[in-house]
Amino acid sequence: MCSEHEYKTQSKTKLRGFSPRANHKSNQISNVCRTNFLGLTLDSTLSWKPHIDQLISKWNSACYVIRSLKSLAPLETLQMIYFSSVHSVVSYGIIFWGNSSHSNTIFKLQKRVIRIMMNAGNWQSCRELFKKLNILPLHSQYILSLLLFVVKHISMFKLNSMINSINTRHCSDLYLPSVHLTKVQKAVYHSGINIFNCLPARIKGLSGDVRKFKTALKGFLLEGSFYTLQEYYDWELINKQ
């Protein structure tokens, strides 16, 4: 493991090699376990745990503030506090860390804040509370942010029709290259394609207009209030039931 001295090295130039497993070797440029880059804490295995650990402390502070003001401020004020002190922090870089297994810890804290704001008991489901507050559950926010990235950078992606000339119902979907490494499958590019391709056709059709796309997508995600990616992938099956 890296020592505190290694992490707080005075040199501004650091080497951070990425691999599926931790592997720390000495280099002429100091090799560190983790480093901060544009407000994101990167670790050697891209688990995002150090970054999420930092977010946890901010969530706990937000819980304390909202709980303290609950009896003094109206709900509208609590919502403003949530969006200014919590949402803006958590949504930053969520397209990178939102698919990490460690993000479930943040989601539990989010539900705690929601229950405090709505004066709900621990036994009560938060799904309808999210809708009433116009707040997306963490994984729904991840989907929103990731799909906005996709449509804003659509030139980075290819359509199935560009790869296969056969006209099928999936020809307007984004082409998904075959990869085997789980880290790559869960990363921004591949996850963005998978999630985009699972959208309702009416929302896909708006991808040429970012503003309309965002409005329709947020309404869809708020209505579904998906707690997990699997719930999102199963949305059509759930609606049929």
Question: How would you concisely characterize the structure shown here?
Answer:
Helix content is 54%, strand content 3%.
Topology readout:
Layout: H1 4-7, E1 34-37, E2 40-43, H2 49-69, H3 75-91, H4 94-97, H5 103-117, H6 127-133, H7 138-152, H8 160-163, H9 182-185, H10 188-197, H11 201-204, H12 210-224, H13 229-233, H14 235-240
Antiparallel strand pairs: 1-2
Helix pairs in contact: 2-3, 2-5, 7-10, 7-12
Amount of helix: 40-55%
Number-wise, the strands total: 2
Q: Order of helices and strands, N to C?
A: HEEHHHHHHHHHHHHH
Could you tell me how far the N terminus lies from the C terminus, measured between alpha carbons in angstroms? 50 Å
Widest sheet, order of strands:
1-2
Percent of sequence in beta strands: under 5%
Looking at this protein, list some descriptive labels.
disordered N terminus, 14 helices, 241 residues, 3% strand, mainly alpha
Overview of this structure, please?
The longest helix has 21 residues, at about 50-70. A hairpin with a 2-residue loop joins β1 (about 35) and β2 (about 40-45). By secondary structure, this protein is mostly helical. The chain is globular and about 65 Å long. It starts with a helix and ends with a helix. A two-stranded antiparallel ribbon has the order 1-2. The protein has two domains: about 35-135, no CATH class; about 140-240, no CATH class. The chain is built from 14 helices and two strands, in the order αββααααααααααααα.
